[in-house]
Structure formats: structure tokens, C-alpha cells
Specification:
3-stranded mixed beta sheet; 12 helices; mainly alpha; about 280 residues; binds zinc ion; two-stranded antiparallel ribbon
């Protein structure tokens, strides 16, 4: 059986899982059809994480740098909706010059050294991590998988026989889903999903006491990086920067008009940036 067919069939099999189905997402408030159960999302993320990390130089070895990123990420977890706080959240700094950040279903969040070095304070780091948390809580990857199934015209009937191929799905299917160089199916979202993740990110960072305008500065940093000869990889996994900047600015002018959180610029430079060695 070819990989694509295997993935499609196995995902179809999960449609039959009792925990999956049409639910109201606690973060977005929207009804959405989840083809993966919560346990499957976690399993998919856990299986895919090592391969994805390895493609970006693996986790940085410096424990204090990892602890810094983890602390900032975890500070936002109590502010997420519903029972998403109970996901096995992990925040990992990857040893790569590539400018990017991404998340896997189930709460695995990654930021590259290349992106972290472009940031100027902790609120901006919270902006990046909060955006990725938003992709997880809005279950965007699950939505992608579901729409892919609809496009592929899945017949539920054929899926029953594949129930015993779960481990095969994880062995063969996960590499295909994650893809090489961050171009994978699970890491690439559309305009609406990017705007939604920005909005959720601003909500989470402000709940944790960070200045939500950090999110706008992240976009400025990324826009500046895009001026160079090489487009940052971030640009392909996080498209539509113009509409994102506009939407973030609008939120700052309205909902967050009187919200002023912390930036922690000195701490970011002294305890994080200065300790990064190549
Ligand atoms: Zn995104």
C-alpha cells in the first residue's frame, strides 16, 4: 500500500473512534469536526516530534536556554481554554539558523535559534510561542487532516480493515505528514488560521502578563527578515504577513487598548540572548 493511501485510510479509521467527532472548540468557540481523538493528536505529535526536531539541528544542548523557553511557554498554559492546559505541553529551542517556529498536535511547540536571535524581548518570544499554542488549541492540524480527507473523498467503509495498521501509520505516515524542511502538510496553514493563531496568541500572552504589542513587533521582525536575499522559511509556513499585521494592529487599538503588560527586555538579553553560542 502506498504511503498516501495508507495515511488516508488510517485517518479514515480514526473517524470511527468514539472520542472523535463534531465538537465546539473551547479556544475558538467554533464547531469543528475532529477526525482525531485527543489521544491520537498527542500520539501523532509525540511520534513526529523527534523527526521534526532532527530536521532543525535537534534541541539546543544548553539546559538554561531550554528552561528559559519552557518557562515563557508554560507561563501561558494556565490561560488556555477548556482542558487544553492538561496537554503534555513542551517548548523546545532548536539549533538551527533557519527562521521559523511551529507546533505539532498535542502541545509540542518549537522555535529555532535563528528566530529567537532576531527577537528583542521576552514579550516577543511569548508572541511567537503564544501563536503556536493557538494553532494547537484551535486544532488547526486536525482541521487540515479532516479537509484533506474530504478532498480525497474518503469512503468510511474501507477504513475498518486498517484499524490494525496504527503503528504502520505512525512509522510511515508521520514522516510524510511532517515533511522535510517545515513544508509538511501539518505545519502549513492558511490565512484564516494564521489570523486566528495570532488572536489566540495575543490573548494567551496578555493573560500571562506580557505586553500584547509584542506580537506586532514579531511581525515587524519577520517582515524585516523577509527583505533579505533569502526569504525566511517562516514566510512559507506562515503566509499573509500584511493582513496579519493589519489584524494585530486593529486588536491593539481596540480590545487591548488599555492592556499594558511587560516586555522583559533586559532579562531576555542577559539571561537568554547573551548565552547563545553557535
Ligand atoms: Zn502560524
Amino acid at each position: 500500500m502506498n504511503t498516501r493511501r495508507l495515511i488516508v485510510l488510517t485517518i479514515a479509521a480514526s473517524l470511527l473512534a468514539p472520542l472523535a467527532g463534531c465538537v465546539t472548540n473551547a479556544a475558538t468557540g467554533r464547531r469543528q469536526f475532529n477526525s482525531l481523538s485527543r489521544a491520537e493528536e498527542i500520539q501523532l505529535g509525540t511520534e513526529a516530534a523527534p523527526q521534526l526536531a532532527a530536521e532543525y539541528g535537534g534541541p539546543m544542548g544548553n539546559a538554561s536556554l531550554q528552561a528559559y523557553v519552557r518557562r515563557v511557554g508554560m507561563s501561558m498554559v494556565p490561560g488556555v481554554e477548556g482542558d487544553y492546559a492538561s496537554l503534555p505541553w513542551e517548548f523546545t529551542l532548536l539549533d538551527s539558523d533557519v527562521i521559523n517556529a511551529f507546533a505539532l498536535p498535542g502541545g509540542k511547540v518549537f522555535i529555532t535559534r535563528g528566530l529567537a536571535e532576531k527577537l528583542d524581548d521576552e514579550a516577543e518570544l511569548a508572541g511567537v510561542l503564544g501563536h503556536e499554542i493557538g494553532h494547537v488549541t484551535a486544532e488547526h492540524a486536525d482541521k487540515r487532516i479532516t479537509s484533506q480527507m474530504i478532498v480525497a473523498g474518503i469512503a468510511i467503509g474501507v477504513s475498518v480493515a486498517t484499524q490494525d495498521e496504527d503503528s504502520e501509520f505512525l512509522r510511515v505516515g508521520v514522516p510524510a505528514l511532517v515533511g522535510v524542511g517545515g513544508q509538511g502538510f501539518l505545519l502549513k496553514f492558511g490565512r484564516d488560521e494564521e489570523l486566528q493563531a495570532d488572536g489566540l496568541g495575543m490573548r494567551y500572552m496578555s493573560r500571562a502578563g506580557y505586553d500584547p504589542s509584542g506580537q506586532l513587533d514579531v511581525m515587524r521582525v519577520l517582515a524585516a527578515a523577509s527583505q533579505g536575499p533569502r526569504q525566511p522559511e517562516w514566510a512559507s509556513t506562515h503566509p499573509h504577513p500584511e493582513s496579519r499585521i493589519k489584524a494585530i494592529q486593529q486588536k491593539l487599538n481596540n480590545r487591548y487598548k488599555d492592556v499594558h503588560g511587560e516586555r522583559y527586555q533586559n532579562r531576555y538579553h542577559n539571561e537568554f540572548l547573551s548565552r547563545i553560542t553557535h
